[in-house]
Amino acid sequence: MVQTGAPPSKPKGGVSIWGELFEDEIRPTLRHNARGIVSMANKGPATNGSQFFICFQKAPHLDGKNTVFGHVLGEESLDTLAKIEEIEVDKKYRPKQEIKIKHPPWCSATRNISSMAAILRGLFEGSQPSSSPVPVGDADFAEFAGALPVEAKSFSPIDSSPSSIPSVPYTKWYNIHERHSLSEFVQEAIILSFLIVIIAIHLIGTRINRKKVKNLFAALGPSLHKEFGLLGFGVNPSENSNEWHEEDVEDIIREKSPSEFASYATGRQNIAFLDINVNLLKRFSPLSLFVEAAMSVFFESIATPTEQLEAVLYPFDGKETLLLPKTSSTTGESRKYQKSTYDGFVWAIVNKDNLKNLRDDRYDLSLTSTKDSSKLPSWVTIMSESSEITEMLLTPELITAVEQSNEMINYLIITDQPIDQPVKLEDTTPKKRIYLGVKIPSPGQYKYVLPIFEYFLRLTDSLVQNAHFRPEVIRRIKATREDAIRKILKSQEEQKAEERNLEREKAKRLKRDFELKAMDSKAQKKYLEKEKEKEMRKSQKKHIQKR
């Protein structure tokens, strides 16, 4: 390319050929993409508006650095450019002949810089070799003082009258669109689009889960309101406690996470309180959902992602006097509570799809035996400690509720034993609870869940009245628990014996070290040799005993 415009006295910039400083703007739409492109240096006050470049070929490395403002037109002008290109240069790419343009015209522009697409069409009226030698004082060009000039043909001007320069300067801070284009932000656009998609999926998935939970509690709410005096996590019952309103749904739900929701109820005879937990699919995070589903295929220990409502009912079991006030807050009279105790046992109705996981995960169900019943559908089975318990609990109301559930039941468990394997004696203390696990129904399937849910809420009343078994049954149930207690006691005794052995070994080592310190070197050597012989004899005896 040709780089010129700076006089020898000021090689880094001189008087602007524009007449004043060029607008300090770079238009990304105008690029060095062809032969004959003319651009102005735009790197600061030292070069702005003074040095300009004429490209022999495409020069993309100048895009964004120089301001493109013109193009060489006409065959004669291009021939002149070709002649300039043929001039021999030295090692520093400086021409060995001086080239000087004669009578450069004013460069013309339209009203604003955005119209500079109509590039200057007349750059040079004519050119001829310089007849005057370069001043001797110029060290950079002294060696070319006697060089022969090259004849340059004139460029054909298109617009000889320059238009007025805009009065308002185009500064960097408000003309960003002049310096940049959208193509420069492709990477940012991709990242932003990706973030928008993630946020949209999260919001949509969260909204779907919230709506699903609200619809579920809107269907179960009337049954809960009918049975309990207080719903939700409030301190006092609501003012409209005599009527159920769908608007109350949001008040009785607590969101633990976008896929986990909880509720609470209390204020009923024979029931201390009720916990309800709803687990939904992670629709707000499809990647996590996919990973969990894939891992469950390859590892049996990882459960397949499912949606479930689990309700846990805690009976009073005769502890009303410990949990409730002894006197009435309105009359001040002492309260009398009915006896709400019943015999402890483990019994369950389980969907066969969940049978293996429940038996492996729950210690209490491992105490039972599994047996199908002809009174129940084939997709469920009974887990019980005694057939007499099954006969008492398998009522027509329960059978009807199971049949109407359309396989929506996962389990119904009555237990007084811990879920996890007890490791301490305190863990074997009976704590009565009732569990109900059902699949989350679609809006049109709530009728399948309501019968078993209502039976679950009233089950404690039936247990308080009927769950009092013969002494033989109680002895068999207690025998199972006593076996577990004996195993724990045996394990604790073995652990204590091991600790005592470790303490004795530690005391022996301390005594040995103390004795060794009190001996001289010869005595220490004899002591260690005797100790080594004893260890060898012990190892030989063990080896003979193994044979």
UniProtKB/TrEMBL annotation:
Q: Where are the residues of the annotated region Disordered?
A: 521-547
Q: What name has this protein been given in UniProt? A: PPIase cyclophilin-type domain-containing protein
Q: Which GO terms describe its cellular component?
A: endoplasmic reticulum; membrane
Q: What keywords were assigned to this record?
A: Coiled coil, Membrane, Transmembrane, Transmembrane helix
- PANTHER family in UniProt: ADIPOCYTE-SPECIFIC PROTEIN 4-RELATED, PAT COMPLEX SUBUNIT CCDC47
Gene3D superfamilies, sorted: Cyclophilin-like (2.40.100.10)
**Topology in the lipid bilayer:** Single-pass membrane protein
Compositional bias (Basic and acidic residues) spans?
521-538
Source domain of life is Eukaryota
List the Gene Ontology MF annotations in alphabetical order. calcium ion binding; peptidyl-prolyl cis-trans isomerase activity
User: Where does this protein come from, organism-wise?
Assistant: Erysiphe pulchra
Transmembrane segment boundaries: 185-204
> Is Lipid biosynthesis one of the keywords?
no
A Gene Ontology annotation in the biological process aspect, one of them, is:
endoplasmic reticulum calcium ion homeostasis
Which Pfam families does this UniProt record tie to the protein?
Answer: CCDC47 (PF07946), Pro_isomerase (PF00160)
Report the InterPro entries cross-referenced here: CCDC47, Cyclophilin-like_dom_sf, Cyclophilin-type_PPIase_dom
- All residue ranges annotated as the PPIase cyclophilin-type domain in the record: 1-101
The cellular location(s) given in this protein's UniProt record come to: Membrane
Task: Enumerate the catalysed reactions.
Answer: [protein]-peptidylproline (omega=180) = [protein]-peptidylproline (omega=0)
What are the coiled-coil residue ranges? 474-513
